[in-house]
Write a structure and sequence with these properties.
About 8% of the residues have low confidence. It is built from nine helices and 15 strands. 30% of the residues lie in helices and 16% in strands. The longest helix has 37 residues.
Length: 404
């Protein structure tokens, strides 16, 4: 069997190979080039995104470092009298800086040269002139007022759940949209000379006690506040007060700085562990503040607007105007204010205040007086002597004798 001779075929291929030129733009090469371009673009976009996210995270971490106490409020939009904003008000908290340590000056003690024997002096003759002094033995020293009884045992009482919750509220750097205490004090306290703040410190009032502390941070030098009285409707044994029983225990501080007033506030918080009933001993606390600060001209009451008053029979003994700051929203579904607290402000010639409104009773009240509590508006009914809920969703404007 003979082998196949491909020499002629190979020679023909060699002769025509230099004339062959493949096409420049093949379809498969165009697709490969597009994929390579897309890969390079995605890789560049990924690196730029990582760099941008790293820069934003570093900026946010640097901005969120607290520097000092400062309560910032969002700007009110034009045409909207409500200071309530969806965003929270931020209270930046600073840490007290340590005082520099002063170096104790070093006192150089004088040194004296060693005494040497001068030539020509007879030491034996000099020692003969000295007189001998006899020293009597000292009598033992007796201890004056020596204690015969052992020292009392020191016990550490850990913080209760109530105290821990109050500390978290007081030291928290944020305050929610309900800043009633801050707003009312900022608007009115300059007009209340020689005022005493009487603050309900039951559990529901923790956020408003924190606002009071935040206000003192910014106004620690305000001379209008003579002191603060905290009450919890419990006696000195921590039991809830009863008619004819032990009087309530009150905690007084004249300090304005938070570090100085905080122990008194915590002691009051510990005293309210067994306060279970709704009515409070509000009038008794006001009487105590009136006796403790006889030079006071105004009493500012911070109390839960939904709590009743159990000792209204003591109301005639109040001789100073009481300015009630209604905390916690409307009292009921119908009434804006708790009737007992409203009567305290009315009988003493004081006033009642909410987040947006300052009402002098009864001088400024007519049938066209409105007050906002939460998201609802309440209208004053002169015949019933109270503010009643309406269906209005905005504060009405009176024009041509009509409330629009």
């Amino acid at each position: 069997m003979s082998e196949i001779d491909d020499k002629q075929l190979h020679d023909l291929v060699r002769q025509t190979l230099h004339n062959y030129e493949p096409p420049q733009d093949q379809p498969d090469w165009q697709g490969l080039r597009s994929r390579l371009r897309r890969q390079r673009r995605w890789r560049l976009a990924g690196w730029l995104s990582m760099l941008l996210l790293g820069s934003v995270a570093g900026y946010v971490a640097l901005v969120n470092v607290p520097s000092r106490y400062n309560v910032t409020y969002p700007a009110r939009p034009a045409g909207n009298p409500s200071p309530i904003a969806d965003t929270e008000k931020t209270l930046n908290v600073s840490r007290p800086q340590a005082l520099p340590v002063q170096a104790i000056p070093f006192i150089n003690r004088p040194t004296y040269p060693r005494q040497r024997t001068q030539p020509g002096i007879n030491l034996a003759a000099a020692n003969q002139d000295r007189q001998t002094v006899s020293i009597a033995p000292l009598s033992p020293i007796g201890i004056v007022g020596q204690r015969t009884q052992p020292l009392p045992e020191l016990r550490y009482q850990p913080l209760s759940v109530k105290e821990i919750a109050l500390l978290q509220q007081v030291l928290s750097p944020t305050i929610g949209p309900d800043s009633t205490v801050l707003e009312v004090l900022n608007r009115n306290l300059r007009r209340w000379r020689d005022a005493v703040i009487v603050c309900d410190l039951t559990t529901s009032m923790d956020p408003y006690a924190a606002q009071l502390s935040a206000w003192f941070r910014q106004n620690s030098q305000n001379p209008n506040v003579l002191g603060t009285v905290f009450f919890t409707d419990c006696d000195s044994l921590g039991q809830e007060t009863r008619p004819g029983g032990r009087p309530g225990a009150f905690f007084v501080t004249r300090e304005r700085a938070l570090n100085a007033a905080l122990p008194t506030m915590l002691a009051a918080a510990r005293n309210t562990a067994h306060n279970n009933l709704d009515p409070e001993n509000v009038v008794e606390a006001l009487r105590y503040a009136q006796r403790t600060f006889p030079q006071a001209k105004h009493l500012v009451l911070l109390t839960d607007n939904g709590s009743r008053v159990k000792d209204m029979d003591l109301l005639p003994e109040l001789a100073k105007p009481v300015h009630v700051i209604a905390c916690g929203g409307a009292a009921t579904e119908i009434d804006a204010f708790q009737p007992d607290q409203y009567q305290i402000a009315l009988s003493t010639g004081g006033s009642i205040h909410t987040l947006e409104d300052d009402l002098s009773l009864p001088a400024q009240l007519t049938n066209h007086s409105f007050v906002r509590m939460g998201n609802h508006y309440y209208r004053y009914a002169a015949r019933k002597g109270r503010f009643m809920k309406t269906r209005r969703t905005h504060r009405p404007i009176r024009f041509l004798g009509i409330n629009w």
